[in-house]
Amino acid sequence: MSRTASARLKPSVALWAVIAALAVVCAVSVGAALHQSAAGADRAPGSALAQESGSGVPAQGPADVAADGVVTEDDGILPDGVTVFDGAYPGITQLSPDLLDALRRAAEDARQQGVVIHVNSGWRSPEYQDELLQQAVSQYGSEAEAARWVATAATSAHVAGEAVDIGSFDAVAWMSENGDAYGLCQTYGNESWHFELRREAVGSGCPAPYADPTEDPRMQG
Predict the structure, then answer these.
(1) What would the pLDDT profile of 73-116 be if each residue is shown by its tens digit?
(2) Distance from chain centroid for Cα 182
(3) Helix crossing, 169-178 with 97-112: angle to 10°?
(4) CA 157 → CA 66, 86, 103, 192, distances in Å?
(5) Residue 154 backbone class (left: φ over 0; alpha: ψ -120 to 50; beta: rest)
(6) What is the tens place of the pLDDT at every residue in 25-48?
(7) Least confident of 8-22, 72-86, 101-115, 150-164
(8) What is the DSSP letter of 207?
(9) How big is the CA angle at 93 (ends 91 and 94), to the nearest 5 degrees?
(10) Residue 86, phi then psi, degrees to nearest 5
């Protein structure tokens, strides 16, 4: 190669070296920026981790229900197929002892007749009841209409552990016909599945149900 050709080549090599160096610098800068952005998201006040517990560790346990707005089985949610004999769920175990005893005696007799008494809902935490009420307001369009179906946490017999919602048509029919022998009565005409304990019903029959919860004097509190 002549000296003249060599002289022409040197500037070209130098130029390519500069371009390569700039590319490396840009790649490093972009990578650093992306890393800082991801780290900042985990620490942002509005991030999911920050809202859970403030330490990046998800909050756990029923004590955190009100804080994180999530209801669980600890609040009374029951999976499908639960009966009054299931002792693993607070929705069953936190019912009043007298109500639970009456339900279990009724369920045992019903089982001998081929009917299984499933429970869709029993005891509920105030947080769970509040969530159901909010859903009812959204569904029915007003608090007044929602009150025909869902009580407040302060007045709900579910929150007090004094009511159950029975599952399946067969079970509801059996309870409607035989429940008074155990003091178990349908409380509201529009909720055939809702039963409460009325001890005076044993021997004398259940009182007439209210048309809906708005006619129940207990709901006025």
Answers:
(1) 999 999 999 999 999 999 999 999 999 999 999 999 999 999 99
(2) 31
(3) 110
(4) 20, 20, 16, 15
(5) alpha
(6) 333 333 333 333 333 332 222 222
(7) 8-22
(8) P
(9) 70
(10) -80, 115
